[in-house]
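for the recovery benchmark. tokens below, seq after
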């Protein structure tokens, strides 16, 4: 059976942590930021973890595990 290809867009958007979780960036931080409060913009700058409901799809795109 051939190797599974990694989805090119997914490898740019997600990163694997040391504990095996998948980190992602928050949305709504690209443009039209003048109406947003400074606190909200600052908090959107941090990374978040992928939810357990989406974990299977992201792992499949990254060719992690099965």
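predicted aa per position
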């Amino acid at each position: 059976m051939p190797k599974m290809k990694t989805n090119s867009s997914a490898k740019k958007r997600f990163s694997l942590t040391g504990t095996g979780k998948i980190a992602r960036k928050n949305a709504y931080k690209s443009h039209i930021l003048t109406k947003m409060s400074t606190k909200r913009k600052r908090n959107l700058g941090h990374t978040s973890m992928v939810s357990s409901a989406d974990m299977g799809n992201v792992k499949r795109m990254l060719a992690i595990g099965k």
